Amino acid sequence: MRDLRALPKAELHIHLEGSIRVETLRELADRSGGALPHGLRGDVWRFDGFLDFIQNYTEACALLSRPEDFRRLAEEFCADLAIAGVPYAEAVFSPANHAARLHDWFGPIEAVLDGLEAGRRDHGVLVQVCPDVVRDLGMDEAERTLEVATKFAGQGVVALNAAGSERAPVAAFASVFARARDAGLRSVPHAGEWAGPENVWQTLEHYAPDRIGHGVRSIEDPRLVELLATRGIPLEIAPVSNVATGVYPSIDDHPFPRLRDAGVVVTLNSDDPSMFGGWIDEVFLAARETWGFSDDALAELAAAGVRASFADDGTKATLLAGIDAWLAA
Ligand SMILES: [Zn+2]
């Protein structure tokens, strides 16, 4: 069996803040006197459901304050992606999660883009950023997030994301996504992770998504599964994350194989690897061990991720050639 770290993978659903190393959090807490997130015990995270995960996520964000903290986060992110065998990634970053605390919408993402540039130089990993509208925070914050995203469109920012608890109304934010598109940004909202298929239907109607983050609960509506397959809208699926936050009780119960068998374009991703205990190589390993995917099937999943990415044609060709070489080895 081939080494899954050596398989070149495009990571399409990963949050920068949810990738922060525990040792970095600890150093930031020591320096500032701030408290570590309440769910962190030693090196292990424990969450009591999705809302508790969000609470821990917010507590982790609160330890990031200086520009150098954000630069370090981004540089270490590239180093860790390189170890996991990811030459290319599209990463979610939440300006709104930091703006309220730091009273600064642009500084954190500027520092992140700086750190990613250093990471590209030092580790050969290319990362494009997808700022996310945290819908629970309301429309004013969404407008500011759009402003941040469009300012850096084509200069490190590639798409607009939407996240949060999925309890927020979808349609209310349609114009934000329409204007993002006018500014040349792609649309990659979260949907159908916590809320059911209706949330995905509404997202398709109002955000014109190029891909959908998670989308796993589409499986509950056969008509929706058929539509996703027909339209070829890729799902960014993160099975280890879905189990860690309690969407599914175990990987065995996860609908990934059924969505794949139904012809939906599925990709494998990690979501918040530091907090869920697994970077994308471990997600591929879980797919091999749980679902018995062959190396051919795993290579095809990696290729699906590359094709569904917003990398330029040259980068895609290089990655696809690397996947072929992995399989031929
Ligand atoms: Zn996510």
In short:
By secondary structure, the protein is an alpha/beta fold.
Please give a handful of descriptors for the protein shown:
single chain; 329 residues; alpha/beta; TIM Barrel; 5-stranded parallel beta sheet; 4-stranded parallel beta sheet; 15 helices; globular; binds zinc ion
Provide the fold topology.
Blueprint: E1 10-15, H1 22-32, E2 40-41, E3 44-45, H2 50-61, H3 67-84, E4 88-93, H4 95-102, H5 107-123, E5 126-134, H6 139-151, E6 159-163, H7 174-182, E7 186-187, E8 190-191, H8 197-207, E9 212-214, H9 222-231, E10 235-237, H10 239-244, H11 256-261, E11 266-268, H12 273-276, H13 280-291, H14 295-308, H15 313-328
Parallel strand pairs: 1-4, 4-5, 5-6, 6-7, 8-9, 9-10, 10-11
Antiparallel strand pairs: 2-3
Helix pairs in contact: 3-5, 6-7, 14-15
The structure holds zinc ion.
Residues 13, 15, 190, 213, 271 line the site of zinc ion (ZN).
Question: Could you describe the 3D structure shown?
Answer:
The chain has a single domain, classed as TIM Barrel (Alpha-Beta Barrel). The protein is built from 15 helices and eleven strands. With 329 residues, the chain is an alpha/beta fold. It is globular. The structure holds zinc ion. Zinc ion is lined by residues 13, 15, 190, 213, 271. Zinc ion (ZN) is lined by residues 13, 15, 190, 213, 271.
